[in-house]
Amino acid sequence: MNKTLIIGASGQIGKMATQQLLDSGQDVVALVRDKAKLSDIAQNRLHIIEGDLEQDFSHAFEGCDQVIFSAGSGGNTGADKTMLIDLWAACKAVDYAKNTDISHFVMVSSIGADDPAQGSDKMKPYLVAKHMADEHLIQSGVNYTILRPGSLINDVAKGRFQTTKPAKKEKMIITREDVASALTYTVGNPALNNTIFELFNGEKTLKDALA
C-alpha cells in the first residue's frame, strides 16, 4: 500500500487532496504546523505530523513512497517568506525525498514559473522561487511531476481541464478543488513521471488532458 506525504496538508488545496486520497483508500501522512487544522478529518489512514518548514522536517518522509508539495507562503507574506517556503523549503523537501528513495514527487508550481522575467514586478519574487524549486527538482534525479496551475479560484470543481494556455487572461483560471483532483490523479502515476503541465479549467477529462 502506497503512503503519500502531503506537505502543506492544511492549506486549501492540500486539505482537499488529503481528503481525496483518504476517500480512495490510501494512507496519507499530513505534514502541518498545527494538527488542529485537520481536526475535522477523522480517518485511521491519516497520520498527522507537526513540523515547521523553516526547520528540519526530514522525519516526515519516513515510510512514505510519494510526496505532494502543496505548501506556500501565502499571498499576505513578504518576499522573505516566499524565499523560505516556496523556494528553500521546497528544495529541502526534494533533498529529503532523494535521500529516502521517494518514488514520485509532485510539485505544485505556478504558470509563469518557466519564465519569471515575463512576470510583473510584484509577482517576480514568487515566480523566481517557483522556478528555482522546479529546477532543483528536475535536476535531482527524483521522478517528478510539476503542475503549474493558472489563477486559483474557489468555485465548485468543474471536472474539466486543459493544458494549453488560454488566449485570454480571464480564462487562465482553475478551481482549487480541480487542482487537488489533478494532484491525487498524478501522484504515483508512473506514466506522468518527469513531466511538466500547465493546468486550467477547460473541456477535457483529466485523463485526456494529461495524456
TrEMBL record:
InterPro entries: NAD(P)-bd_dom, NAD(P)-bd_dom_sf. Residues 8-190 form the NAD(P)-binding domain. It holds the Pfam family NAD_binding_10. Gene3D superfamilies: NAD(P)-binding Rossmann-like Domain. Transmembrane segments: none annotated. This is NAD-dependent epimerase/dehydratase. The lineage of its organism: Bacteria, Pseudomonadati, Pseudomonadota, Gammaproteobacteria, Alteromonadales.
